[in-house]
Design brief:
Blueprint lengths: L3 E12 L2 E13 L4 E5 L6 H8 L7 E6 L2 E2 L5 H11 E5 L10 H12 L4 H14 L15 H13 L5 E5 L7 H18 L2 E6 L2 H6 L2 E6 L2 E7 L1
Parallel strand pairs: 3-8, 3-9, 6-7, 7-8
Antiparallel strand pairs: 1-2, 1-4, 4-5, 9-10
Helix pairs in contact: 3-4, 3-5, 4-5, 5-6
């Protein structure tokens, strides 16, 4: 069974009497351990598709199944629980909590969705910070870290609860060239080590070159797919 399955999924946004089709009749299958990118121009629907997979939005029609669950049928509470239990997210703006240390930012998902004792949380958090090369910076707040360091902490946070699936929306957009390459290599290493599936929404050529499968969208439709 595919990890992600979209069947005739469409998304229509309404503003008064105006309808905008963000996605039209998307049918797509993604297997476990893929390193895949949704690409296309602004307004092509790639971020909308990522949001449907991530239970951040629901299709107007069709189905989106993630890990055997029809996420389109989940209400807000169930969607939040599903995200916390199964998904990790990496965002363009990092979305770290500014008053928390790197350690506390990575620990946060475990406090929210895992009923783990403190010693087990600490072991897991330090394991992830060490994996991304940030163990020595664990005590620092986000304003004391570089952009690349913040993104490394964000990757550790996305992986700390051991999700099967990580969704990354323009994760390298605010990084310099060398740092972006390092973060991409880190995520591919984490995929190889932990078996995590990574799905990106991006304009970044560096991610496109690293992706093992590219799904190109235009005007809300899949127009091309290619594998490395």
């Amino acid at each position: 069974m595919a990890l992600i399955e979209a069947v005739s999924a469409s998304k229509i946004y309404r503003s008064g009497d105006v309808e905008v089709a963000a996605l039209s009749d998307i049918t797509l299958s993604i297997e476990a351990r893929e390193f895949l990118a949704f690409v296309g121009p602004s307004g092509s629907g790639k971020s909308t598709l990522l949001n449907l997979v991530g239970c951040l939005d629901h299709p107007s029609s069709g189905t989106v199944t993630v890990m055997g669950t029809n996420v389109a049928a989940l209400n807000r509470t169930a969607s939040a629980a599903f995200r916390g239990e199964h998904l990790g997210f990496v965002f363009q703006e990092f979305n770290l909590v500014p008053v928390l240390s790197a350690y506390e930012n990575v620990e946060y998902p475990l406090l929210m969705v895992r009923n783990w004792p403190a010693d087990k949380r600490r072991t897991q958090v330090m394991k992830m910070l060490d994996a991304v090369g940030m163990a020595e910076q664990a005590h620092k707040r986000p304003d004391q870290l570089s952009g690349g360091q913040k993104q490394r902490v964000a990757v550790a946070r996305a992986l700390v609860s051991e999700p099967q699936l990580v969704l990354a929306d323009e994760p390298t957009a605010n990084l310099d060239h060398a740092t972006a390459h390092n973060v991409i290599a880190l995520m591919k290493q984490m995929r190889d080590e932990f078996g995590t599936t990574f799905v990106f929404s991006t304009h970044d050529q560096k991610i496109m070159e690293a992706a093992e499968r590219i799904v190109m969208l235009e005007d809300g439709r899949i127009v091309k797919e290619q594998r490395a």
